[in-house]
Amino acid sequence: MIAGPAPAVAEELLAALPPSPAVWCSSLRKRYRRQVAVDGVSFTVGRGEVVGLLGPNGAGKTTVIKMLLGLVGPDAGDVLLLGRPARDPRARTRVGYLPELFRYQPWLTAAEVLALHVRLTGISVPAEEPRECLDVVGLADRAGDRVGDFSKGMQQRLGLAVALLAGPELVILDEPTSALDPVGRADVRDLLLSLRARGVAVLLNSHLIGEVERVCDRVVILDKGRVAASGTLAELLGRRDVRLRLAGVSRAAEELLAAAGPLTRDGDWFTVGLPADEDATTVPALVDDLVALGVRVHAVEPGRISLEERLLGILRAGPGADPR
Amino acid sequence: MTVRTVLIFAALTVQEASRRRVLRSLAGLTIVLLAVSAFGFSRIDAEFDGELTTGEARLVASTVLNLVMFGLSLIAALGTAFLAGPVLAGEFESGMALAVLARPVRRSAVLVGKWLGLVAFGSGFITLAGLVQFLVVWATVGYWPPDPVAGLALLAAQTTVLLTLGLLLSTVISPMASGIVAVGLFGATWIAGVVGSVGAAIGNDAVARVGDASRMLLPTDGLWRGAMNAFQDPGLLATLSEEFNAHPFLSLSPLTGAYLAWAILWIVLVLGLAGMAFLRRDL
Which of A33, A64, A66, A105 to mutate to test binding with chain B, by most B CBs within 10 Å of its CB? Predict the structure, then answer.
């Protein structure tokens, strides 16, 4: 027989445990006939973390996402979503998803699509929440229109609204800006930043590397169904550069620049390599010191190996060449 | 949660069916058929200058009612068979299923819900159109079928058989192809049933077995014959000879309980197969 206080103690112990990752997957494998689509993929997405999934076409990104959501059955491997095995449909209660192939019931209105998804989650949400989600994606004035009359861009916006419904703790976005114009892309970027600010974990599959670079805490690079590399941007990109356009550079100023990091010069442009772990005060302090030495500073630009260059480098080197 | 999911998808399927063009097509075809039958029934007595005996009038009314009800069941079969494909396979092809199945729902509950919605839609159509047809016949020639409830229930069961087949087919072939194959099999079984009846009437057992076998493989024709029997005047059946067994729009014997049980088992098995295919399918 269980003593009275035991459940309370167990609850306290459970509450003291760190929350399980938003996504945990291990050794996922999937083969379509003779083609291996996913081959031993493992990664995690922490709570509140924004993780980018990158890789060339056919790398297995969408298949991995579908396996996480139970839409594709893995041949091997395990998935936990928000601490529950993905086999259990309840694991998806607090998960929002925008598929790459976004299509919603054309005979329903936008408001009806959202109402349907609220019912499917089985969670009671405030009456105004669906309208707020439509407002966030710029469709508030089209709530009563049939989805069949929507453009592709509007359907993708509707898909984003669906993914944001019912207070998700994890949002999985598969190419969320593929049908959006530049304004729409900027909106999605703002949306991702607001999700991160609210502590919502995001798994983002996007071909727009700049987008990933701006919003993601970590990146997982897939190639030929395997994890080719993963890590924070700082880990993946390594050294950062700062480019300065300077005039009146004395010998002392040049020594100061060289002391900050490897220095290269092209006319009045100076490029200084900074360590990956440099903090946010390094560059302002360097500029202050240069000004104190009488150097006129015309321009300061962050310059670093771009994620695109790094991605291409990893993919050209082949799978497993630089795994982290 | 599972029952809730079933009900959500049943309601969604009825809503889909009622908002798609197929409903307007069904309504149009039904109105045309009812209007033509109303005109036809009103002319039966006039064409024979009131010389038909009561028995003859009942025979004609029974036969023509069964003919029209066959037309209605054909419309229901076409409608539901062409609806069944899109509600499942069409959603896979378009990607519409992705966002829905990523919600906390069991696929089996989604399938049963959609099936239930289609059954409700098909049965609702049969009941409504059938009742209007009975009223038309009653108003024009004063004939009311002896067991309209059982007859309509059997027609609804026939529609259920066909839409369940459509669902199974749509898990392996395209939505349009599944509709065409289902309706083709429905027609082939009906023809095989008539051929079998001719065999029985002329005492050729081999030919008669064609009808029996087809009625077992796809119970649409067997259920249809049971429905016809429920629509006919019972007094009329006693006066008809065995040769009338070959009549495509008269049925001399009612449906047996064993056959009804087989039809129900058939539906459960085929829905189970569709469920297995649906559960294993990668989206």
Answer: A105
Q: Which residue of B has its CA nearest to A95?
A: B103
Q: Which residues of B touch A125 (CB under 8 A)?
A: none
Backbone φ and ψ of A256, nearest 5°: -60, -45
Q: Which of B15, B16, B99 sits opposite A97 (nearest CB)?
A: B99
Any long-range contacts for B185-193 (C-beta under 8 Å, 24+ apart)? B185/B218, B186/B77, B186/B81, B186/B162, B186/B218, B186/B220, B188/B214, B189/B214, B189/B215, B189/B217, B189/B218, B189/B220, B189/B221, B190/B220, B190/B221, B190/B224, B192/B221, B193/B221, B193/B222, B193/B224, B193/B225
Q: Distance between CA atoms of A172 and A66, rounded to whole angstroms?
A: 10
CA distance B276 to chain A (A): 14
Distance CA B138, CA A298 (A): 97
Q: How far apart are CA B137 and CA B141, in angstroms?
A: 6
- Domain span at residue B98 reads 2-280
Interface list for A 100-159 with B (CB within 8 A): 101-105, 107-108, 116-117, 119-122, 159
- What's the token pair of residue B208? 């008669």
Please give the structure tokens belonging to residue A169: 């703790």
Other CB atoms closer than 10 Å to residue B149's CB: what's the count?
10
Whether B99 and A121 lie within 8 Å, measured CB to CB: no
Confidence of residue A144 (pLDDT cuts 50, 70, 90): very high
Cβ–Cβ < 8 Å for B197, B211: yes
Residues 158-217 of A with CB under 8 A from B: 159, 162
Q: Which CATH code fits A23-235?
A: 3.40.50.300
SS3 A249: coil
Each domain of chain A, given as residue ranges in start order, spans 23-235, 239-304
Closest CA to A170 of A269, A79, A252, A95: A95
Could you tell me the pTM of the whole model? 0.81
Of the candidates A85, A17, A77, A20, which has an alpha carbon nearest to the alpha carbon of residue A46? A20
Distance of alpha carbon A42 from alpha carbon A323, whole angstroms = 12
Q: What is the pLDDT of residue B215?
A: 82
Is residue B231 a contact partner of residue B145, using CB atoms and an 8 Å limit?
yes
Q: Which CATH code fits A239-304?
A: 3.30.70
Residues of chain A in contact with residue B12, where contact means CB-CB under 8 angstroms, are: 105, 116
CB contact under 8 A, A103 and B95: yes
Euclidean distance between CA atoms A101 and A178, whole angstroms: 10
**How does residue B114 score in pLDDT terms, banded at 50, 70 and 90?**
very high
The reply to whether B21 touches chain A by the CB within 8 Å rule is no
Structural domain total, chain B: 1
Taking CB atoms and an 8 Å limit, are B4 and A122 in contact across chains?
yes
Flag whether the ipTM exceeds 0.90: no
At A258, list the tokens: 């060289």
pLDDT in tens, A254-306: 989 888 888 888 888 998 887 766 667 888 888 999 999 999 999 988 766 67
